[in-house]
Amino acid sequence: MTPRRGSPEPDKPPGSPSSGEPVFLAVGKLTRPHGVRGELIMEILTDFPERLKPGVRLYVGPERRPVLLRSQRPHPRGALVAFEGIDDREKSGELRNQFVLVRADDRPPLPDGEYYHHQLIGLQVADEEGRAIGELVEILQTGANDVYVVRQPAGDELLIPAIDSVILSVDLENAEIRVQLPAGLFPDEKGSSR
Question: Which of 19, 34, 121, 125 has the smallest number of Cβ neighbours within 10 A?
Answer without folding.
Answer: 19
